[in-house]
Design brief:
This protein is α/β, with parallel strands linked by helices. Helix content is 26%, strand content 18%. It starts with 19 loop residues before the first helix and ends with a strand.
Length: 183
Amino acid sequence: MAARLVEPGPAPAAGEGLRARDFEGLRARAWAAAAAVLDPEVPVLTLEDLGVLRGVEIAADGRLEVLLTPTYTGCPATAMIALDVETALARAGLPDARVRTVLSPAWTTDWITAEGRRKLTEYGIAPPPPKASRRALFGVETIACPRCNSTDTEKLAEFGSTACKALWRCRACREPFDHFKCL
């Protein structure tokens, strides 16, 4: 399970918005609903796998809020993800919950879970290393082919099917593949 970096604020006092005793159950329901939403660009990853689901808390007006951090501020999928989360929350019986985008701290590929990295590889996308290294940041990295696991690979283009991936090719099996860039 992804780390929940954004801790919920204190539950409202009795009579203000959600009752304190209801908060934890609602928070768990909201987390589960949002965590199961699939990323529209990499549909084998949930928002929890990707690490963009950052928390669930009570807003100042007493409404439940799900906090999301996009993979980058210009990600074209951000609006679709927010709509998908709102839909999932409504289906979970939380129609008044809302989604809030949080840009700080900025998302990093270090937030992708181990399960998410496994799913990426099985889907044919080379995941970033678990901890972004200086070598990865400057493009001096060894990327294993997600199909045959060979490290005899080459970068073909800085951008692959989306801006957050680069296009690579394996010299051993000759197959092209996307590599999730380190951010």
